[in-house]
Amino acid sequence: MHKSIQTSHRLNAPVEKVWSLIKTGEKWEDWFPILTGSRVEGNQRFCDLENGDVLEEVFLASNVEKTFIYTVHQQNSFPAENIVGILKLDSHNSGTELKWSVEMEVKNEETFQMLRQQIQQMYGASAAKLEELAA
User: Hey, which end of the chain has fewer CB within 10 Å, N or C?
Assistant: First the structure.
């Protein structure tokens, strides 16, 4: 079953500083709580997690639109497949609005509800760390 999750976070930090932390796909472990390391090779990102590794492909990192789109090709962290994530930044007053969404295939509604809660918490913690680093 195809599902999506959308979150929105207001950050008290300039959009350019937040974008500088996101746009290359590198060093996400500095602000994404479940990563212990990462490296980028071409358009692929290899992420280290405590419970396994993740292979992603970066589809788009638009400096004009402040949009970062990635697909997850391999992961053992949670019960989902065909994962596509989108981070979109917009200026909001003197700060930043971070819209973060993810689409995925899951087996059932119960699995989705569990994942939704975990992902919303993870994205919230990531947004708070981005705000701290970019302020």
Answer: N
Q: Give 32's contacts (C-beta < 8 A, 6+ positions apart).
A: 122, 126, 129
Answer whether 15's CB lies under 8 Å from 96's CB.
yes
The per-residue pLDDT of the chain, averaged, comes to 93
pTM here?
A: 0.92
For 48-111, what is the HEC assignment? EECCEEEEEEEEEEECCCCEEEEEEEECCCCCCEEEEEEEEEEEECCEEEEEEEEEEECCCHHH
Helices 15-22 & 109-134, crossing angle to 10 degrees? Answer: 120
In the Cβ-directed half-sphere of 78, how many Cα atoms lie within 13 Å? 18
Question: What CA–CA distance (Å, rounded) separates 71 from 81?
Answer: 10
